[in-house]
Amino acid sequence: MTINVLFVCLGNICRSPMAEAIFTQLVDEAGLTDKFHIDSAGTGDWHVGEKAHPGTRRILAEHGIGYNGRSRQITAQDMSNAKTYVITMDQSNSNNLRRTFGQHPNQHRLLDFSSQKTETDVPDPYYTNNFEYVYQLVKDGCAGLLKTIWEREGL
Ligand code: 4NP
Q1: pLDDT at 1
Q2: Contact 48, 14 (CB under 8 A)
Q3: Are 145 and 24 within 8 A, CB to CB?
Q4: pLDDT tens column, 76-125
Q5: Which of 2, 96, 108, 116 to pair with 148, CA 20 to 30 A apart?
Q6: Is the pTM of this model over 0.90?
């Protein structure tokens, strides 16, 4: 059975594409590619169809990760599978989803899986421009998320 993981942010050009790319690499490295369907989406529609932000593409490239996704807005269909791991980047994303689609039983904030305790929300590099800091936070959160899914799904 495929495990669905959907990363969500506001614009789907900075943080959630980065999380999708990093998590995909971790899953590939663990030899679990066939078990997962990994995707990302934004709550907003401003950047639909656009490539990821140049800062996200640059930082991923610096860490040897490719990414070719285009921004899309989240749909009711995305939220209709109760088993999908819906992983938001910050509390505002979580609130937006809850307001639009109601409570989802498997919705979490990425940094709830993180080993660091400084940040609970992934700061938005669209405004901070600190893509390396965001990369480190997202990578740590993704590693914790994979460990949790591994245990929960008995992989
Ligand atoms: P993201 O960053 O949610 O990490 O993709 C943003 C991208 C675009 C906008 C806001 C945040 N925007 O307002 O256009």
Answers
A1: 87
A2: no
A3: no
A4: 999 999 999 999 999 999 999 999 999 999 999 999 999 999 999 999 99
A5: 96
A6: yes
Q: Are strands 107-109 and 85-88 parallel, antiparallel or unpaired?
A: parallel
Token pair recorded at residue 30: 């663990």
The verdict on whether 9 is a catalytic residue reads yes
With tokens 């971790």, the residue in question is: 26
Ligand 1 within 6 A of 129 CB?
no
Note if 124 is an active site residue: yes
Contacts of 82 (CB under 8 A, 6+ apart): 104, 105, 106
State pLDDT tens for residues 42-60.
999 999 999 999 999 999 9
Q: Which helix (H) or strand (E) holds 145?
A: helix 131-153
Domain ranges of the chain: 3-153
18 C-beta closer than 6 A to ligand 1: no
Q: Is 46 in the pocket of ligand 1 (CB under 6 A)?
A: yes
- Describe the crossing of helices 131-153 and 15-29 by its angle, rounded to 10 degrees: 50
Atom 6 (ligand 1) nearest CA: 11
